Amino acid sequence: MTKPERTHLDDLENQSIFILREAYHAFGNIAMPWSMGKDSNVLIWLALKSFFGRVPFPVLHIDTTYEFPEMLEFRTWATEHYKLNLIVIINEEARIRGIGYETHDPVTVTHELKTVPLQKALAEYKWDALITGIRRDEDPTRAKERYFSPRNAQFEWKYKDQPPEFWGQFATAPGKSEHVRVQPLLDWTEIDIWRYVQRENIPIPKMYFARNGKRFRSLGCSPITYAIASDADNIDKIIAELEETRTTERAGRAQDHHERNAMQKLRAKGFL
Q: What is the value of pTM for the model shown?
């Protein structure tokens, strides 16, 4: 009997599972931020494969209060379906102060409603590592990341001074009040994600598929996330579309483009 040939997706999956298991072994208290988007749902799936059908750490949703209703419906379904230990954090204090897209720019709102509550959650739960679903191909700033990427006590990312990762030697000893971002999907591309979703039949929000000539390529807060013109109503069509497009994945995410180097500034302050 001929042994099946290992594919590119198999290699990516194996590497991600290795990183997840290394993180679980290295850190005593970890969590996984979960946006309910395609990447974070692939991450949930990989965690289930890594740990024999369960996710053995909490998943964190930072709720800005501007979520699409369909995303919240998916959150309810997936939490029950995967039996997740879900923690939901809202920066109620910022909302009371009137922070919102109606009155403030997207960079300010993103920092106040996403980064600040993440910092508060880290301080409260004392997590020493966060498993994130970022990929290098999403944004030039994220291309500078490592698989295990330290953040200092002020939650800052020193992107000009990152540890080397030779022979699978990762940064696994954060200092007091510091933490490490673990990035199992770093080498995946957008098309890799879609091919894996298709191969594994991973549930994802239906907003990614075209309805009435439009679909969402990336999901964020409803006031600043825009659909693209598309007739791609299934994964084969989405992959074909991505093979032809020159538009960046996050072109419809307003906080990325509000000012020069907006994403780099946000991420340096602790944004995912």
A: 0.87
What is the three-class DSSP state of 184?
coil
Q: Is the pLDDT of residue 265 over 70?
A: no
User: pLDDT for 176-214, tens place per residue?
Assistant: 778 889 999 999 999 999 999 999 999 999 999 999 999
Contact 249, 217 (CB under 8 A): yes
Whether residue 82 contacts residue 44, with contact meaning beta carbons closer than 8 Å, is answered with yes
**Cα dihedral 55→51→122→162 (10° resolution):** -140
What are the percentages of helix, strand and coil residues in the chain, rounded to 5?
45, 10, 45
User: CA 226, CA 218: separation in Å to the nearest integer?
Assistant: 8
The 59-62 sheet, strands edge to edge = 86-89, 59-62, 30-33, 129-131, 179-182, 148-151
Q: 136: phi > 0 → left, psi -120 to 50 → alpha, else beta; which?
A: alpha
Burial of 229 (C-beta count, 10 Å sphere; 0-12/13-18/19+): exposed
